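Researcher: We plan to redesign the surface later, but first we want a full-length starting point. Tokens attached.
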């Protein structure tokens, strides 16, 4: 690949942050339903421990034009699936995540695996130190997701109750207009949660016996969740 999958922080910055964290290079998997706060906590983990935050979304966006014609798939690039709104086949996602993790001494993996086959593929890619599971009640997840507002220019997230901008409907960061994503209406949110329960929740059972498996109460203020997340990684890594 010409562009490394899922790379969001320069290598020298990562090394500096790792040194500041006492040399820890934890390999962290963070799991939980949509709206549980995985992205927020993953970002803080990456900053705290000097590791890369790897997401399937970033990997896909960074490699939309990747040649996958040798994988016997319907289309020749991931972008063709994405542009049509189709799911990218597991074999392609597996390859992208594998590329993103290759050679990494530490990372926080967010958004993968989403099913049992992907979990099996991950076993062949790396050994995990910590598996964090954010647990949040369903109705709280619905409230979080339906109240989310996103800047159409820079993508910054806000919430109508918990994280309001200084000026209603206007992004604090860039002045762009805020909008509600189509998949954040209540019907879509409940459908996404149903898909999670059917496809991804069973993955948790595959990691329940992992030595570094820790369930985190995600129904707290973000800073309180962070304290529990940080403590878990420091204890298990």
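Model: Full-length starting sequence:
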């Amino acid at each position: 690949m010409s562009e490394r999958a899922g790379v969001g922080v320069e290598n020298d910055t990562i090394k500096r942050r790792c040194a500041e964290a006492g040399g820890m290079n934890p390999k962290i998997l963070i799991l939980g339903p949509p709206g549980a706060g995985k992205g927020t906590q993953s970002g803080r983990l990456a900053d705290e421990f000097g590791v890369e935050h790897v997401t399937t979304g970033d990997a896909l966006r960074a490699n939309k034009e990747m040649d996958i014609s040798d994988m016997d798939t319907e289309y020749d690039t991931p972008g063709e699936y994405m542009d049509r709104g189709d799911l990218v086949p597991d074999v392609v996602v597996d390859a992208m995540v594998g590329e993103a993790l290759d050679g990494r001494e530490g990372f926080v993996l967010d958004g993968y695996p989403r099913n049992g086959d992907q979990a099996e593929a991950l076993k062949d890619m790396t050994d995990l130190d910590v598996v964090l599971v954010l647990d949040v009640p369903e109705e709280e997840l619905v409230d979080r997701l339906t109240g989310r507002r996103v800047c159409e220019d820079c993508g910054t997230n806000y919430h109508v109750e918990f994280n309001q901008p200084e000026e209603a409907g206007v992004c604090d960061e860039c002045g762009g207009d805020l909008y509600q994503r189509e998949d954040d209406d209540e019907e879509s949110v409940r459908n996404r949660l149903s898909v999670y329960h059917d496809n991804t929740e069973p993955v948790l059972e595959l990691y329940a016996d992992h030595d570094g498996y820790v369930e985190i109460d995600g129904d707290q203020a973000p800073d309180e969740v962070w304290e529990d997340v940080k403590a878990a990684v420091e204890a298990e890594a």
